Amino acid sequence: MSASPALPPVDPRSPVFRAHEGGKLGVHATQALRGREDLSLLYTPGVAEVSLAVAADPALASRYTGRGNSVAVVSDGTAVLGLGDIGPLGALPVMEGKAVLFKHFAGIDAVPVVMETGTVEEIVEAVARIAPTYGGINLEDISAPRCFEIEERLRERLDIPVFHDDQHGTAIVVLAGLHNAADVIGRRLEDLRVVVAGAGAAGVAVTRLLQRAGVRDVVVCDSRGILHPGRSGLTEHKQRLAVSTNPRGLTGPLAAALAGADCYVGVSGGTVPEEQVASMRPGGIVFALANPTPEVHPDVAHRHAAVVATGRSDFPNQINNVLAFPGIFRGALDAGATEITEAMKLAAARAVADVVTEPTADRIVPSVFEPGVADAVADAVRRLAPTRRGRGAAAAG
Prior knowledge:
The protein has 397 residues and is of the alpha/beta class. The protein has helices at residues 15-20, 36-42, 46-56, 61-64, 87-106, 120-130, 146-157, 165-185, 201-212, 236-244, 254-258, 274-278, 298-301, 325-335, 342-355, 373-384, 393-396, and strands spanning 70-75, 109-114, 136-139, 162-164, 193-197, 217-222, 225-226, 263-266, 284-288, 305-310. A 6-stranded mixed sheet has the order 7-6-5-8-9-10. Strands 2-1-3-4 form a 4-stranded parallel sheet, with helices on both faces. The radius of gyration is 22 Å and the shape is globular.
């Protein structure tokens, strides 16, 4: 069990608590139950005919049940937002909120599934056993490094999309923003020197996706400084990062990485002193994504960088996962995808970026409420989605 956090004041009159009272989700029927005839169609005896058909051909479940439009939002509450390990019940309001976003932006029925934390094997087994109900699995707020193995093993075991949004949703929107930020400052993506501060779930995924998009010089830092092969005490996932990044062989603290860098991506929290930001190449890019307190305040960042983004909604250029995950799952579910591939992630990032037809320093990503974002992402993902017949949706069409 996780340790109990300090209790905040509970004010039932507060708009926040009133908005959550009774939960944020309910169940509604898609077919009317008006009398005996409807009952015989929706339940016994009529349902038996459909059940036998689905049992004989499991692919029919996506058409004749809700499976084709449903996603499980799974968390053990070990890394919830900026709150840390607050347990499954503490995570439940967040997972309900995530389900609301799925429904609002993509019309997907998402179901929160919170569970007591356990070993990697226990969580994988639990999710795998409930997977037949759903068309996709969205992993959420599971601590690193366990989250990497949990996702990898579920992807190997299941034939439906498994997507850890804390990793890949963040990475996709960061890449989308960087596409347009590079255009704004007149530099090529592959020529940027990028520093990623944070080697947890988001930092690992951001680094890998930027590399796949063509960024050649990425330096990753954790709380102890730059990752490099000669550093002792690295965990397995940090060892892999150390050998695949840092092409100039830098060592030392974050300050050594930032000197002369074009772009800073903060996904770790903490504060970066202004003198370190000032050491970056003039006219660069700062993505300070910690919430609620960015690693570099935008006012400070703007003194030294041309393009500044945060994770907050009250500043321009909000890097928000909701720009990615609804459309990704919409496209994957519509295509009957068996997984979400790296090509699909790259295409999703490009689709988000392309919604902004004329990028400026204050507009490198669209607003989360801008019409058409989820549709654009879904279209891009659908075209590349692998299906059970081994072909992408476009080829099948």
